[in-house]
Automatic annotation (TrEMBL), chain B:
This is 4Fe-4S ferredoxin iron-sulfur binding domain protein. GO terms for molecular function: iron-sulfur cluster binding; metal ion binding. Keywords: Iron, Iron-sulfur, Metal-binding. InterPro entries: 4Fe4S_Fe-S-bd, 4Fe4S_Fe_S_CS. Residues 1-29 form the 4Fe-4S ferredoxin-type domain. It comes from the Bacteria. It comes from Allochromatium vinosum (strain ATCC 17899 / DSM 180 / NBRC 103801 / NCIMB 10441 / D). The keyword Iron applies. The lineage of its organism: Bacteria, Pseudomonadati, Pseudomonadota, Gammaproteobacteria, Chromatiales.
Length: 499, 92
């Protein structure tokens, strides 16, 4: 018997829910556009870096999950920045970063407000970059209110991707998410505001698609508000030609001072998020590796090298544009060559059960249940991270048939600092919450204290498979549990999982 | 008569480009309105532009010193609730 491990083709670090499969239905021209975009292609995020510049602090609407106190250094989430830049400063920073990190392919403007609410700053940044660094792709995120009027101008620069945050297509739902918008020189509230916003978002989406710009739709999953409705959103935006739908969890901690945070609106559990992503998936590409980055993030996804490139550090840098561009072209050609190389054959893809089997198990009366396991890894396909250092866990489902990559769960969304936003204690609690539904966590090492807390939460820590390939280790642990009789049949399991 | 920006403004830039009289100054620690230049938008708009886009409650006062966007009016968070939550967070 062979235990099949799905490595969903294309991803160099095995087992990533790879873009190659999910984006396979897209025309070649589109795949070429997302191939080296770390936010759009799950495969690309292992190889390429992106950066955001915060030039756009103004916003023309209010979302109940946002507050505009956007400079908390201890938070890592959209809308949070520590340094607001003028367009000239932003351009300088982009050129400096792109010279230092040749894997950088994408520059995005994503706030902290709405980049199109105050378009001069955003467009000026794009205009200069299109001229000075023509190899860098530009993208922008928007709430969509001002979008339809700016599509033509955006298309003049190297803009190939636009992200629109669309949380609803029904104004009654919208009224529970957006208290007001600023429109035609007035503040408009309630259902009417939502109606206008929705109309403008849809109009912008249609116009962009008609111009051949790739549109990704972000949606924030707000339990009890738009959870069911997002399936409808997914259908609508897909029908209109959006190429990727990214459902992200609501972040609502009281200390962030948002309406939802203060009114006790809860965030979705990881299991709810996964379920909704599955429901929305259909034949449309879903994005599961989004890290909800800060509006001034720099580097590979999930890493933030912003501190290396603060204004004072780059101010006196002399950058040789031509040389930097040449270097980028070389490094990126190398990356592509590596990605194109044929993948390791069966070794990673098939694990012979015989090789990991110990005692032949007693025949089971019913199918053993599947188990979710979390893995701490820095991304190379092996279990190589200390539990306490992991900012995200990769979740795998092990069953008798196979080991399947389910998605990534982050733990760094809420806070990374300790003085204002809670202690290590809370951090551990957040991690445990993020691992909801998992029964094991595989890591390189783990401290004594978290070990106990994890066990108390019903999650078995396991450091025995350090530096082993992920799928093999997950399969081995599953096998071990099976042999130990820990895997009650499915019926009994559902009881336990829901408990 | 003129509008006024007080402490609490988060320097978000939303108001400044909208002012028909260029009365808003991007100052530190927070933005300011030049009282001589502000026209309260009279003759240009039905609603004062700065106060119509400002996302922070209570930071813009009208000519009489009354907050144009009083607590609760923008976020929908009842002021008692906000106070309670703040106390709770502080007590942690
Ligand atoms: S669109 Fe963005 S900046 Fe504006 S209120 Fe919503 S989340 Fe905040
Ligand atoms: S009230 Fe009108 S004129 Fe006065 S500062 Fe505000 S926007 Fe400018
Ligand atoms: S809109 Fe309000 S918070 Fe923003 S800069 Fe103007 S006064 Fe300050």
């Amino acid at each position: 018997m062979e235990l099949k491990v799905q490595t969903q083709g294309g991803c160099a670090s095995s087992g990533c829910g790879s873009s190659a499969d999910r984006l396979a239905h897209l025309p070649e021209a589109i795949r070429a556009k997302v191939n080296n975009h770390p936010c759009f292609s799950e495969d690309a995020h292992h190889h390429y870096a992106r950066m955001h510049v915060a030039v756009a602090p103004a916003c023309n609407i209010q979302c109940h999950y946002c507050n505009r106190k956007y400079d908390c250094a201890n938070e890592s989430r959209p809308g949070v920045v520590s340094e607001l830049l003028t367009p000239d400063q932003a351009v300088k920073k982009v050129l400096a970063v792109a010279a230092a990190i040749p894997q950088m392919t994408v520059l995005g403007i994503a706030g902290p407000g709405d980049p199109l609410a105050n378009p001069e700053r955003t467009l000026e940044t794009f205009r200069q970059l299109a001229e000075k660094a023509p190899d860098i792709r530009l993208c922008v995120s928007t709430n969509g209110l001002a979008l339809p009027d700016l599509v033509d101008e955006l298309c003049q620069y190297n803009i190939e991707h636009v992200t629109i945050t669309i949380n609803c297509v029904d104004p009654d739902v919208g009224a529970k998410i957006y208290p007001w918008i600023f429109w035609n020189n007035r503040r408009i509230k309630g259902r009417k505001a939502a109606e206008i916003l929705i109309r403008r978002q849809q109009e912008g989406l249609e116009k962009l698609v008609a111009r051949g710009v790739l549109v990704k739709v972000n949606s924030v999953l707000i339990p009890g508000v738009n959870d069911e409705h997002l399936k409808e959103v997914s259908r609508v935006v897909k029908a209109k030609g959006a190429f990727l739908h990214n459902v992200m969890p609501l972040i609502a901690e009281p200390e962030h001072g948002t309406f939802y945070g203060l009114m006790g609106q809860r965030s979705p559990t990881s299991a709810e998020l996964t379920a909704l992503q599955d429901a929305c998936a259909g034949d449309m590409a879903m994005m599961r590796h989004c890290r909800q980055c800060r509006a001034d993030a720099v580097g590979m996804l999930g890493e933030d090298r912003g501190q290396e490139f603060t204004l004072d550090k780059i101010e006196h840098l002399e950058i040789d544009y031509a040389a930097a561009m040449q270097k980028r072209a070389e490094v990126q050609a190398e990356i592509e060559a590596r990605r194109a190389a044929p993948h390791q054959p069966a070794k990673a893809a098939f694990v012979s059960l015989a090789s990991i089997e110990r005692v032949r198990p007693q025949p089971k009366p019913a199918e053993p249940r599947p188990v979710l396991m979390a893995v701490a890894t820095t991304g190379g396909g092996v279990i190589d991270q200390h539990f306490g250092h992991a900012r995200a866990f990769r979740i795998y489902e092990a069953s008798v048939q196979d080991v399947r990559f389910i998605g990534t769960r982050q733990v760094d969304l809420y806070c990374t600092g300790s003085d204002t936003c809670g202690e290590a204690e809370t951090r551990l609690e957040q991690t445990i919450r993020a691992l909801d539904g998992c029964e094991a966590v595989l890591c390189a090492r783990i401290g004594y204290e978290p070990w106990g807390k994890l066990e108390a939460a019903g999650i078995t820590p396991n450091g025995e498979h350090a530096l082993e390939p992920i799928e093999e280790a997950v399969a081995a642990v599953y096998r071990e549990w099976l042999d130990a009789g820990r895997l009650a049949p499915v019926a009994a399991a559902s009881e336990r999982l829901s408990a | 008569m003129a509008f006024k920006i007080i402490e609490g403004c988060v320097n978000c830039w939303a108001c400044a480009p909208l002012c028909p009289s260029q009365a808003i100054v991007a100052a530190k620690p927070h933005f300011l309105i030049d009282a001589h230049t502000c026209t309260e938008c009279a003759g240009d708009y039905a609603d004062p532009q700065c106060a119509s886009i400002c996302p922070v409650e209570g930071v813009i006062l009208d000519g009489l010193g009354v907050p144009v966007n009083p607590p609760g009016s923008l976020t929908g968070i009842p002021p008692e609730r906000l106070a309670a939550a703040r106390a709770e967070i502080r007590a942690r």
